[in-house]
Specification:
The protein is α/β, with parallel strands linked by helices. It has a single domain, classed as Rossmann fold (3-Layer(aba) Sandwich), CATH 3.40.50.300. The chain is built from 9 helices and 5 strands; from the N terminus they run E-H-E-H-H-H-E-H-H-E-H-H-E-H. It has helices at about 20-30, 45-55, 65-75, 80-85, 100-105, 110-115, 135-140, 150-170, 190-200, and strands at about 5-10, 35-40, 90-95, 125-130, 180-185. Strands 2-3-1-4-5 form a 5-stranded parallel sheet, sandwiched between helices. The radius of gyration is 17 Å and the shape is globular.
Length: about 230
């Protein structure tokens, strides 16, 4: 059986350079002759995505529970597309995924396990690269504060949740949910960050015979709220 392509997720705090690095990675894969597709969440082109876009731009107000479920539904809209691309041999690079949804909603005070539940059984990434940057450094970058969540206290809280997710994803007993989670220092130069990311991506581009995993399937934690 031919190997499938890897599923790579890029996460990070706002203004960590995440979107730029996603594009750079896609270009590098394509230059190496590797079929690759960039997906961005939220996907603001769908009907659900347009509702999310208006919310993020503070053009509308929605209940915290509702916006969380909309973010999750937006990911489910593309779940079958992700699986099809991987089986066809196309590397999927995702700019944000379920981890962002949990981190931002839990930072607003919603229970951690409740935030995770709607994304259970989504396709699990083979590699998650988390671009870590202090909120202070992010604030110094252009465009900071243009969207709803770009506030220092919020970003500090989000960062703490990402640390928890990193420990969980690299922990024991995750079964099909387990994937490599690598933290990259995003305060480096853009080229240094790109090289650090490529060092982890390059060994995977030959594909894998592992079945596509399922996020958190059968691996709920017992500590219910945080």
């Amino acid at each position: 059986m031919s190997p499938r392509a890897p599923f790579i997720v890029i996460e990070g705090l706002d203004r960590s350079g995440k979107s730029t690095q996603c594009t750079t990675l896609i270009n590098r894969l394509e230059a190496a002759g590797i079929p690759a597709k960039l997906l961005k969440f939220p996907d603001r082109t769908t009907t659900i995505g347009q509702m999310i876009d208006a919310y993020l731009k503070s053009q509308s107000e929605l209940d915290d529970h509702l916006i969380h479920l909309l973010f999750s539904a937006n990911r489910w809209e593309l779940a079958s597309t992700i699986e099809r691309l991987l089986r066809e041999g196309t590397v999927v690079v995702c700019d944000r995924y379920a981890f962002s949804g949990i981190a931002f909603s839990a930072s607003k005070g919603l229970p951690f396990e409740w935030c995770r539940a709607p994304d259970v059984s989504l396709p699990a990434p083979d590699l998650t690269l988390f671009l870590d940057i202090s909120p202070e450094a992010a604030m110094a970058r252009g465009g900071y504060g243009e969207e709803r969540y770009e506030k220092r206290e919020m970003q500090e809280s989000v960062r703490r949740i990402f640390v928890r997710l990193a420990e969980e994803m690299n922990g024991e007993g995750m079964g099909d949910s387990r994937s490599a989670w690598i933290t990259v220092d995003a305060s480096q130069t853009m080229d240094d960050v790109s090289e650090a990311m490529w060092a982890h991506v390059q060994p995977m581009i030959g594909g894998t015979h592992r079945p596509i995993g399922r996020l958190w399937a059968g691996s709920f934690s017992s500590d219910a709220t945080e």
